[in-house]
Amino acid sequence: MTNNNLSLSxxxxxxxxxxxxxxxxERAKRFTTRSIKTSSKVSLLKLVxxxxxxxxxxxxxxxxxxxxxxxxxxxxxxxxxxxxxVAAVCVYPSMVKIAKKALGNAGINVAAVATAFPSGQAPKxxxxxxxxxxxxxxxxxxxxxxxxxxxxEGDYNFVFDEIAEIKxxxxxxxxxxxxxxxxxxxxxxxxxxxxxxxxxxADFIKTSTGKIQPAATMPVTLVMLEAIRDFYYKxxxxxxxxxxGGISKAKLAVHYLVMLQETLGQSWMNNEWFRFGxxxxxxxxxxxxxxxxxGVYQSANYFSID
Length: 306
Known about the structure:
It contains 12 helices and 7 strands. It is an alpha/beta fold. The chain has one domain (17-301): TIM Barrel. Strands 1-2-3-4-5-6-7 form a 7-stranded parallel sheet.
């Protein structure tokens, strides 16, 4: 295995900790029972908004659709004062330049999926060119997918080296490594893939592409958060986390923040270190904020669909 990004002793990934399935699911469930004070709810909802990566990753994506998404990113709800922006807009590499221009100086990052997203079934040189193209177009962040077939075959060296090479191709862009946990199936495999990604140079570890079910779940996310915690204790290096897919309700997102706070602590409670990959979540958060402000729910029709 090679790694030009970290001066670390690379562990034997076959020795990654085993996960107690019953224990992790019970711990994850407890986070949903925490009571949230009304005074804290609005600030948490605004924090959720600020952690969202608004995303469009469809074959029918057009210049107009990407521009509309970028407009929404900057104008979530103009009648509500002092709303934060989202963290990033995530698009295909071919749309990066369009998004970058549309966002201007809004302070919103442009993320691009790469490495033959979502399957990852392409030669390594194609994946590297895909990554370099996105970075050259102006991407601030790269979301790559691991080679799940190689991982499930037990070829961990291949997965490690591929991540390390993509990280090098990213230059100054941050790298999010998507595990596609729905295809890994077991918590033990999620933990092992998390460890490989972090030691190979990932800046973020991310649950899912959003194209496979199940996508993000609280137990899977907790396994990954605990991997980040253990990695930090061993190396002193912070890694960011992004659950993606299946988080569409504000209440659930707040449960995720409770889990984040209690597992990794306050220093991870910002969009540098935690993101939600869930565009539909933004509208539900806006509806909840309006309910807190006015006492009544607005119809979803008051918010944009994109």
